[in-house]
């Protein structure tokens, strides 16, 4: 399967991964439609040449305008994260509602390919590196619970209704256009006060960080190369970076030397998995390996985001 020949919908296409994927596929010759309610992303992130539909995926009428029978594949990336909502019920119901709406509409109009952005949070606090067949899955956040419920819905539609699906369990994806995550958060704090930096937890939280350009390349490789009815792949790097190391990298790139003020505890917030590293052996077996490891992904992203954020 060659995505360059396809008519593609990207929901959440004004967000971090969605906007980069839309631009990548457009450059390769695909016909792109982006659907986004612009609650997180902005209109200028949608690449020129892509059709844009302002649409809320929780609204069935909006979904009907976005998902039409001329599409070849839907990349369903629209989602709300923990930082978007204080209300756990709303977070769970709206994320799973979006996914059900998209799948239901795809069945209605006969679109039979779906790619979905899940998360490492479905594993909870699992042994590392965590493979795709690890179980039982025990998420510790409502966000992770919603992603796991989304996966169940997609599995059902793949096996019972003929919608071939690719599910990507992400490590921490970083890069330009990102906001509301640790790297831009540190940049904004240090730009305001370069003498001190508050760090949630004890700074020893340690996770895998993957640059968005690598993430997009891996997504395309898997969708074009894996052809089971239901395909689940971890996306990440083989290495990890601690929160204190991120603070060091951001400080170096800004040329500042702050004192660190830790809030304490072994995690940044309720539901935070303090240590995460995914197995990417299955991805490697399909012929794709990251060329940028975790520390370098953080450093590259810090440089890109400093250019965007710091005046």
UniProtKB/TrEMBL annotation:
The record, for Pfam families, names: Epimerase
Which InterPro entries does the record cross-reference, listed alphabetically? Answer: Epimerase_deHydtase, NAD(P)-bd_dom_sf
Q: Which domain of life is it from?
A: Archaea
Annotated ranges, domain NAD-dependent epimerase/dehydratase: 8-236
Record family assignment: Belongs to the NAD(P)-dependent epimerase/dehydratase family.
Can you name this protein?
NAD-dependent epimerase/dehydratase
């Amino acid at each position: 399967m060659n995505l360059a020949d396809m008519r593609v919908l990207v929901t959440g296409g004004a967000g971090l991964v969605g906007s980069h994927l839309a631009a990548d596929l457009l450059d390769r010759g695909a016909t792109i439609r982006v659907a986004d309610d612009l609650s997180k992303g902005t209109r200028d992130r949608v690449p020129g040449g892509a059709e844009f539909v302002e649409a809320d995926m929780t609204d069935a009428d909006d979904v009907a305008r976005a998902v039409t029978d001329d599409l070849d594949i839907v990349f369903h990336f629209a989602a709300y994260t923990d930082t978007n909502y204080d209300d756990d019920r709303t977070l769970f119901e709206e994320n799973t509602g979006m996914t059900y709406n998209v799948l239901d509409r795809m069945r209605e109009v006969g679109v039979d390919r779906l790619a979905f952005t899940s998360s490492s949070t479905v594993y909870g606090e699992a042994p590392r590196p965590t493979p795709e067949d690890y179980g039982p899955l025990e998420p510790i956040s409502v966000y992770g619970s919603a992603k796991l419920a989304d996966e169940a819905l997609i599995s059902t539609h793949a096996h019972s209704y003929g919608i071939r699906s690719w599910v990507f369990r992400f490590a921490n994806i970083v890069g330009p256009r990102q906001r509301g995550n640790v790297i831009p958060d540190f940049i904004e704090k240090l730009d305001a006060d370069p003498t001190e930096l508050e760090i949630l937890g004890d700074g020893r939280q340690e996770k895998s960080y993957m640059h968005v350009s690598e993430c997009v390349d891996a997504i395309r490789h898997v969708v074009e190369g894996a052809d089971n009815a239901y395909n689940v792949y971890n996306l990440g790097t083989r290495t990890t970076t601690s929160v204190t190391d991120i603070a060091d990298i951001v400080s170096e790139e800004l040329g500042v030397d702050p004192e660190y003020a830790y809030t304490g505890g072994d995690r940044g917030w309720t539901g935070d998995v303090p240590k995460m590293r995914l197995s990417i052996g299955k991805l490697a077996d399909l012929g794709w390996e990251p060329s940028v490891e975790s520390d370098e992904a953080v450093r590259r992203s810090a440089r890109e985001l400093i250019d965007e954020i710091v005046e």
